[in-house]
Each structure stands twice: as C-alpha cells, then as structure tokens.
Design a protein that fits this description.
D-amino Acid Aminotransferase, Chain A, domain 1; five-stranded mixed beta sheet; single chain; seven-stranded antiparallel beta sheet; 26 strands; alpha+beta; Helix Hairpins
Length: 667
C-alpha cells in the first residue's frame, strides 16, 4: 500500500472507529461486534506504525473512550483511567518486552503478573474511611459518570472495606470490572424475548446498560458481578501480585486464575492454559492482561499517549474480524450449482489465516449488498467456513458495482440456468469438468466410500491420464496403471489399490447412497433411506409417495431421488458400479440405545471427541445427528468456542448441555 492509499484508508478508518466507539461507549449500542471494532483499530494502529507521520493526536488509537453520558453527574478522575494496547501473538508480546527493556537498566530482571481480561465495564471505587462514597465509570478516561447508587446494588462490591493488619489511608481508590455472568445474561435475553424486546448482543453491553440505569432497582435486578484488578492508592506495596493479595483482604474478588510469570515462555503457557478453559468460565473474557509485576518499574516505564507501557492486553484470536473483498469468484459444485465465493485480503481469524468466505448465492449477496472493494466483517466459528456477516458501507471505495451472476459456466462455458422457485443458478452441462471432479471427490469422501489415498490431486492426475471418468472406473484401476503417475511410488500404488479393493468387497448401503451425490440427499437422509429400504433395489423401485413416508423426507427430496433413479444415465452408471462393488444390505431391527429417537446438535470443539467421533457416538446410542438447531432438536452439546447455534438453542428453549453431560447421556 502506498502512502497516498494509506492516507485515504486511515482517514476512513478513523471516521468509522469514532462513530462505532461513540455508539458503544456513550449510547450503549453496538452496530458491529467488539471483535470487529478491535480488528479495525488494529489495522489503523498497523498503518500508523508503518507511516508514523500519519499519526495525529486526535486519532482513535490515542484516546480511551467516548464522552460521558449527560444523564449522570460527571465524575473527574484524579488519576486517569487508562486503556491497554492489544497484542495478538507471541511475537507481539516479545516486541513489547523488547521495547520496555530499552527503557530499563541492561541487567534489570523482570517478572510479570498475568490475569484474566474480563469482558465488562471498568469502574473506579472511592472509599473514605473504609466506606464506599463514589463509583465512577471510565468515561473518556479523565471524566466519567457517577453511578454510586447503582454500584451499591452489586453484592460483589463491599460497602465497607474489611479491616487488615496494614494501616490504610483515609481515602482509597479501587478499580475493577463490572460484568454479567453467562447464566444471568442468558436469563435476561430470555426475558427480553418473552417481552418482545431486542436481545442484548453480549454480556458487556448488558452490564453497561444495567450500570447506567437511572433506577437502581433495575440495576439490582440484573445481578451484576465485580472483579477488582488494581489499587490506585499507594500503600507501600511493591508488586502487582501484592496488590491482588491486598484486594482479597479488603473483601474483593480479584481472580482465581492469576499467575506470576518469569519468562515469555511462561506467559505463553499461561495464555494457552487459559484458552483451554475459557469456554467453561462463568463469564465472557477475550484475553489476558500481562503486567510488569514490580510497581516501581511500572511507574518508571510511565505512560505513552493514553496507555501504560508496563502492561498489555494479550487477546485471543477473534472469531470475527474485518477485511477487504478483493474479488468475487464463482465455483461449480457437483450438482452444477454455481456458488459465489469472496476472495479476501488475508486476515487472522480464530487462530488461522482466512482468505476466502462463502457468499452462498445471489440472494445472500444482495441481502448483504457486498461488492468487490468492500470492507466486511467476517466470522469463523469452529470448523465452519467463514461467513461475511456485515458490510461497512462507509468504507466502500467509489466506483464499485453490484455483482452479477455469469450467464455462462466459468469452467465449460455452457449456458447457466436459474430454475423458477430456486435461489441457485446451475451449469446445464452434466459433463462439465468441474461437476465431474466434484462428484468423484464426493464419491471417495469420508462420509461416502471413504477410499484412503484418493485426494483431489490424485483424482485429477488419474483424470488427466484418462484412467477415470466415472466412479465405476475407480474399481478397474491396477497397480500398473497408477505406479507410473507422478506422486506415486510402488509402495503407495499398492496401498491405494488395497484401499480400493477393501471397498470393492463391501460397502454399507448408506455410504453407497450418499456417495451418489443425489441432489438434496446428504448423509443423514442416506442413513434414513438405508434403514427404511435395506437394499438398493427396493430404494430404486420406490415411488415418490413411498419415499415421502421416510421420516424427515419431504416432497422435494422424494421427487429428486425418484427422478435420479429413473434417469437412463444413472441406471447405466449404477449397473457398472453394482458389477464391481458389493453393497451390504441392512439387517432389520428397531433403533435402540440411550439416545433413541433424540435429535442432537454439537457446536464448538469437544475435548474428548472429534467431530466424526461425536457423530458416531450419537448414532451408536440410537440418536440422530443434525447440523441445524430447530424446535425439534432435543439437545445442543456445547464445546469450546461455540458458534451461533448455542445462542439459537437458548432463544428457542432447546436444552443446552456441556461435554460432561453429553458423555453421561451416551451411557
């Protein structure tokens, strides 16, 4: 990026960040998620670091927050309430240490205090002669809002400090975070939904709104919590660890997960240890605060702008971030459906680099109003392909135009069809190379024939060598065919042929059905058909009405599979397959097990189960694995970093359980 381009981008970023921060801090509204705002700010900080002369005193990176709300009395801070610089990687933590070491004596030993960064609202508490006399929000860092009466309703805030062996000054100032427990937040949103009111986006917004209620009774009903993290008043303590010890003595909760670290390696280990348990914590948190432990060194390091040099916020990779759409390309799937895909400026999301996001179809593109050149918010939850959540139109460059679906297939140039009543567009050429390759990849996939060693590149090599054109051709391959090909040696050729031979000897009926790639028929439906008809012949002979009698099979699916088996090309392909592969019939028997008849959704990463292992465990227990949450869902199992399915389950009143409860259900 040139300096001229950076100047334009910086100006737009500052304008938007100021807008979002005003909405967030002053009006208690969130137009975009916190993680997305952090991403915009991080981009701005990076550009200002790259082009230092673009940095100005009025940049959003040089301030703490917005103006205080006018509805409360203003409360000036004797000592400003600062904010912390964010870092997102071990390298950035190391850079921070390098910077502070330059300001300290060469042989100065350092230790660090690590604590959780709870997602809430910062509060300053003033005690006079041990009694709470004032509670103030951060505001703009120098002037906050007096919310004393509301703070007094929070049980976690002591109205009188506990006596200690240390003599305390008449005036004491304690700082910490007001937050809302996950369980309280879920209950509040259920109440909002029942009353027809909009749901809160996150516990931080809910806590901020509760603290700023004019009626303290409403605040009291919100059941807020408080975590103390600092003591502004100097009472002769030497380290931040001692500060936390004194906070506990005075009657505050100051964190159960704090740790003293002596090296960068220990900081990183702490960060990883917390990452393993953070999804199970009773509150939301988005990172850890790392501080130089010695208070004298913190004072010596001082403040730069609005941030202390002696501490940082080490954040976890956000599942949401902002980036720029550099192109919108169209992929052709196994059914011929054209799927638009956004090619993105690479960005770190949830610990990995993301450069593409699905746009699903033209209707979704129009709903989002996304164009090439747009700045967008993307989300990646668990193993799900990233989605574009929102476009930031104020950052849109001039001269963009709306996306149009192509009239010709981008692969084979055949005409594109848009059937009436459908959102998808289709390539009309059944022999399109893209469709055939996608069909072959689906046929050998783990949930179909599961032929180990036949990946996309190997299949393409076999295609280019004119060795395969249909799935049946796979079962005519020999070692002599494969060994001469690039990527193959004698041993690997033998292994692949052995894998193919194993499937030739017998494949489960549901796998065979799923391998065919019939439109609207996935793994779950394939299992249902296999259980109902027990042989391929009976399934082929079934009419649409008989097919609809299968649970969860509607008219569209029934007509699709009926038409598929009536097609002459299908019959020819199935005859060739049936002559080369043994299809195992399904034994008659009633479904049984502790989860018989139950519909289960799993979201997030489980500690003791991979996704496939969880799926198999559910089926062995007689349950039904489903990918989407509905009122018919019996349980939603929540692991680490769950996506929107957990929130949807709670909104629908579907029971949400953790991994331990899930294991008990399995028996």
């Amino acid at each position: 990026m040139t300096k001229a381009e950076a100047k334009i981008r910086v100006a737009k970023l500052r304008q938007q960040i100021d807008h979002y921060r005003y909405q967030y801090h002053v009006l208690d509204k969130s137009e975009i998620p916190d993680a997305a705002l952090d991403s915009l700010k991080h981009e701005l900080q990076s550009l200002e670091a790259q082009f230092p002369d673009l940095l100005t005193p009025d940049s959003p990176t040089q301030r703490v927050g917005g103006k205080p709300l006018a509805k409360f009395t203003k409360a000036p801070h004797v000592v400003p309430m600062l904010s912390l610089n964010d870092v997102f990687s071990p390298e950035e933590v190391a850079d921070w240490e390098t910077r502070i070491r330059k300001l300290l004596p060469a042989k100065q030993k350092l230790s660090y205090f690590a604590e959780l960064k709870v997602d809430g609202l910062a509060l300053s508490l003033t005690y006079q002669d041990g009694v709470l006399t004032r509670a103030a929000t951060r505001g703009d860092g120098r002037v906050g809002e007096d919310v004393t009466q509301n703070a007094k309703t929070i049980d976690a805030i002591p109205l009188r400090l506990r006596q200690t062996s240390r003599k305390l000054p008449a005036t004491m100032e304690i700082r910490g975070e007001v937050f809302m427990l996950r369980s309280v937040f879920d209950t509040l949103n259920k109440q909002q939904a029942a009353a027809g009111q909009p749901l809160y986006a996150n516990p931080r917004n809910a806590a901020a709104g509760a603290v700023r209620q004019l009626d303290p009774k409403i605040t009291a009903n919100r059941k807020l919590s408080f975590l103390a993290y600092d003591m502004v008043t100097d009472i002769g303590l030497r380290t931040h660890a001692e500060v936390h010890g004194m906070l506990a003595e005075l009657g505050f909760t100051s964190g159960k997960h704090n740790r003293l670290c002596h090296t960068l390696a220990e900081i990183e280990q702490y960060h990883k240890d917390i990452d393993k348990v953070r999804a199970k914590l009773p509150f939301w948190m988005d990172g850890n605060v790392i501080s130089v432990n010695a208070l004298a060194l913190v004072r010596q390091l001082g403040v730069v702008g609005k941030t202390p040099r002696g501490a940082i916020a080490y954040k976890y990779p956000a599942e949401q971030a902002t980036t720029v759409v550099e192109d919108i390309a169209v992929q052709v799937g196994r059914t011929g459906a054209l799927t638009p895909v956004a090619h993105l400026r690479p960005v770190q999301v949830a610990g990995s680099t993301v450069s593409r996001a699905t746009l699903h179809n033209l209707d979704e593109i129009r709903r989002l109003n996304v164009r090439v050149g747009d700045t967008v918010i993307i989300q990646k939850a668990g193993e799900i392909i990233p989605d574009i959540l929102q476009v930031l139109p104020a950052l849109r460059p001039k001269g963009t135009s709306a996306f149009q679906m192509p009239k010709r297939c981008p692969i084979c140039k055949a005409a594109v069809l848009h059937p009436a009543g459908e959102v998808a567009y289709y390539c009309t050429n059944k022999k399109c190379f893209a469709q055939q390759m996608e069909n072959l990849q689906h046929f050998v996939a783990k949930t179909a024939f599961d032929i180990v060693g036949l990946g996309p590149k190997i299949l393409e090599s076999l295609w280019n060598a004119d060795l395969i054109r249909t799935p049946a051709d796979i079962f005519q391959l020999t070692e002599a065919d494969i060994a001469p090909l690039e990527r193959f040696a004698e041993t690997s050729a033998k292994k692949l042929i052995a894998s193919i031979e194993a499937k030739r000897q017998g494949v489960e009926l549901w796998r065979f059905i799923n391998s065919l790639g019939i439109r609207h028929v996935g793994e779950q439906t394939s299992r249902a058909f296999a259980q109902q008809f027990r042989t391929l012949e009976k399934l082929q002979q079934a009419d649409a009405e008989t097919l609809q009698a299968v649970p969860d099979v509607g008219l569209v699916v029934a007509e699709s599979i009926h038409a598929y088996f009536k097609d002459p090309e299908t019959k020819k392909m199935l005859q060739a397959l049936a002559s080369r592969v043994r299809i195992l019939p399904v034994a008659a028997g009633k479904q049984s097990g502790p989860l018989a008849g139950k519909s289960i959704v799993v979201t997030g990463a489980l500690e003791n189960f991979s996704r496939d292992a969880a799926k198999e465990a559910i089926r062995k227990a007689g349950g039904k694995w489903t990918d989407s949450v509905s009122k018919k869902t019996d349980f939603v199992v929540v692991g680490e970093n769950p996506g929107s399915k957990a929130a949807k389950a709670k909104a629908l009143g579907v029971k949400v359980i953790d991994e331990q409860a899930f294991q008990k259900l399995l028996g």
